[in-house]
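Appendix B, example 12.
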Amino acid sequence: MAKMMGVGALNLALNELMQADPKVLCVGEDIGTMGGCWTYFRGLKDKFGSERVISTPISESGYTGVSVGLAYGGYRPIVEYMFADFATLASDGIINVAAKARYNSAGALSLPITFVFPEGVGQAGCQHCQTVEGWFANVPGIKIVAPTTPADLRSFLKAAVLDDDPVCFFFSRPCAMSIQEEVDTSDQTVPTLTNAAKIVKEGSDLTLIAWHSSLLKSIKVAAEIEKETGKSIEIIDPRVLCPFDKEKVFASVRKTGKVVIANEEVERGSFSSHISAWIAENCLTDLKAPVKRVGSYNTCIPFGAVEQFALPQEEDIRKAILSVL
């Protein structure tokens, strides 16, 4: 066991993946000598060389295309975008090429490539602090992985890279650079990307679904409300958004009859909309109250400390839970 933050867990996973398979490559800006803007590529260039840790110019569209070509050639590229917002610059290669590889080859070809998106706030403004997993939810052929804790970051990055289809891997920078937990470094289990949701805490009066920073806020708020009201709240961390673990969520909803979904995406068009719709379509007669969603306001994220006013806070989650209870 070793205590580490999320960035340390990601670094551990990259070391393990690259040690096990010479076809695993890392591609991105400043990931070589500098070790990446968020530090989790540190030491990899010295250990595995510049032919496997490829530090690129600032050209997301260009290095995405090169990486897709490498994946077609039998490699397993891990492609980082310094900020998830920059997915817009790489979207053609991800959406129109990688995601359609199986379809356009009539199932003959797979494309084992992982696109890594550090996201979340950091007082860096409207082009560097967006939460964007919902952008890719409408693209067939892509899997979406969004773990939160250090142990899950390590194991699900490995699962993403070892998967034979394109995976968009989203992680919260604030969480990965602040949360510490014990990670069993001897455990080499690689989880499946199906049925991946985790029951963080069991309960009977309300189902609370959350990930990334909203998960941490939700755990804290739920404990406070349970103490105040005597109610019991079940908390679910999806970990993988596509393919989504619907059955685990449906089972919880059928038990509790009440649901709150919290994440930091702009509420309009967010992935929480999909979850809410699935629950309505499959568990409508089990619901005792409408599903409540908590997300960011439909506004650009302002620069600096005032960003907090655009994002869901603990009090927003508290109000949502109490209104449903």
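The first strand starts at residue 2 and ends at 5. Residues 213-229 form the longest helix (17 residues).
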